[in-house]
Amino acid sequence: MVTIKWWGHACFEIRSSDGFTLVVDPHDGGSIGLPKPQVKADAVLITHEHFDHNAYQVVLKEGGRTFSMKKGKFQVDGFTVTGFGAYHDEFKGRRRGKVIMYLIEVEGLRILHTGDLGHLLDDKTVQDLGEIDILMVPVGGTFTIDSKAALELSNMISPKAVIPMHYWVKGVNLPLRPLDDFLEIASNKYEILRLENNEWNVSKNELLSWPKTKVVVFPFPFKA
User: Fold this and answer.
1) 33, 69, 173, 183: least buried by Cβ within 10 Å?
2) Per-residue pLDDT tens digits for 71-116
3) Domains within the chain, CATH numbers bracketed
């Protein structure tokens, strides 16, 4: 059983059954108007070096490791991680630079965190990614793909679960669109699963039992 927690924006905690904790794209809270992530990570993955994604010092345990924009396959304890190059905009990075999408494999699950993806993926990249169980995708627009493109990407990848991220919630001081924009169009095809708290315990077998893709929505403000 793998535990996934959302800490706002693009920050996720992914914890294996043995307790090893991986955090992707931590923010520092205050600089974007959100509560600071309350997690201590054994390792941190950073998709790109923008201030709202790279605050590793906020969450990293003493002696922990940080991997920033790391391409290729590498091992982090029981996690196998593969970094795929992508862009922060539709112009091959000329406006906002590059990002690394991380494919995280743990306990049979294949989780793709796309970072601040700014464009749709080509067919070859989708093929190279392979089967994806859980897709973490930005939906807020402005700096990333918007809700319509996020839905198109989800359709291309066909994961079992889609976790929207990087959208506006109360307090955020960035010009992002709210989650409802994405849910309004996604609900025509996918089931919406609203969690009661910001912790989701999930296994491969659970996802295989789902008859159709679900959009998994974490609550905000966070609930214990």
Assistant:
1) 173
2) 999 999 999 999 999 999 999 888 999 999 999 999 999 999 999 9
3) 2-217 (3.60.15.10)
